Amino acid sequence: MIRKSVLAALAGLAALAVAAGAVAHDYKHGELTIEHPWARASIGAAKAGAAYLTIVNRGESPDLLVAVASPAAEHVSLHTNVTEGGVAKMRSVQAIEVSPGEPTVLQPGGLHIMLMGLKARLIAGEKFPLTLTFERAGAVTVEVMIEAPTTGGGGAGGDGHDGHDGRMGAGDS
To answer: Along the chain (173 residues), what's the average pLDDT of each consecutive run of 10 residues?
Structure first.
């Protein structure tokens, strides 16, 4: 009985250590800090996914995230979710402002990085490179951790993207 309890406790500690390691991957780039870049694992044969992260501007001037790129997908772009007539839709955005003193959060259901035409499934535990280009700070490449569909904040969608199944509807971009 005690042996099973000890084994269960050790397994729990190992899981916490893995989870802590997955969260602790921040990148400093000049006055910017890019915190915990992550994506959900693909579900099925989805060809679309999304990446999320938080950007903290410790400088005195605003910056703009103006471009994103990754060899993991054929097309990578900045998106937001909007609700029109009670229907949630994705919209592409040209840039995302990164103001000093307040975190810019890219998360499920809001601003995010769209990955279209995935070249391979996103598999939990793996990573892929993502290059963020800022108007002032220039380009920085980060490693995006791929997390299980139930981690990272939010429910699982058909492609791991905000409840969408990878298909684009009329008006989506």
So the answer is: 46 43 74 97 92 97 98 98 90 97 95 97 97 97 93 40 36 36
The answer to whether 27 and 33 have CB atoms below 8 angstroms apart is: yes
What CA–CA distance (Å, rounded) separates 41 from 149?
6
* 80 within 8 A of 110, measured Cβ to Cβ: yes
Using CA atoms, how far apart are residues 148 and 89, in angstroms rounded to an integer?
24
d(CA 118, CA 10): 37
Interatomic CA distance for residues 40 and 74, integer angstroms: 18
Q: Specify the 3-state DSSP secondary structure of 100.
A: strand
Question: Checking phi first, is residue 142 left (phi over 0); if not, alpha (psi -120 to 50) or beta?
Answer: beta
Instruction: With H, G, I as helix, E, B as strand and everything else as coil, classify residue 158.
Output: coil
